[in-house]
Amino acid sequence: MDKLDLIKSNKELVQYYDDFNKTVKKYINIKAKYSDQELPYTQSKFGGKPYLIDKEKYPYGTDGNPLKLLAQLNFTEIPHLNNFPEDGILQFYISFIDKLGLLGADFDNPTKQDLFRIIYIQGDVVDENTAIRDYQFPETGKDYYFPVTGEFKLDFKIIEELISYQDHRFSQTIGNRPHKLDISETTLDELYKITDSNVHKIGGYPHFTQWDPRDRDGYRDYDTLLFQITSQHTADNLNKPAEIMWGDMGVANFFIKSEKLIQRDFTDVLYNWDCF
Question: Which superfamily is assigned to 3-274 in CATH?
């Protein structure tokens, strides 16, 4: 049973069926599996070594320290989603050396790419044979915290979902905040489960452990979830350390304005992460 059917079959939620129906959106679900072997430079991955074709262009933070690859998305491996690239590589780098332990985030100025960087490499230049292999990529070691331990290969699948109960547009779309809808506590818990979006993903609706950082002046037009990576314990880690952990079971989101995404302009991206 899909999520709309769950809304329709619930005697309390059915009154909101038409409103939820208007929010149906496709997204790319990402399954991350630990890899015990180093993945190809051009392959989609969490962690690991990035595809680099110019040593002089490796990203550094404004503090003078190198940034580290959080995730790399090769769109030739990913089902196409409206407005997103059909080819090319999108890389997400964040700081792991900042003294405050904020992993490159600036919560007062979340679009300021001082200690994080989004890099898009056009598809016509992507070639595994041109990847630089002799670069001394930064390692976190034991002295620094980084959310991705190990290297993860990724699988992608298109799925439909409804607006997340945490999205700042929920009350405007459905008519009220979730806890103020005309439903019982039991049904409210069911609604939370139906509209939960705590997965690795491209597009769709976001998940937060705290609140939507866009719900304030100046940030509401970051209407597209570019990428989300959440916390994940890994059971099949072959006795090697492998996990994804944002603080205490948190999640990170990257948002972009839809017109900037269409233009392939990734210089204006909102980066936020939170945890319990």
Answer: YwqG-like (2.30.320.10)
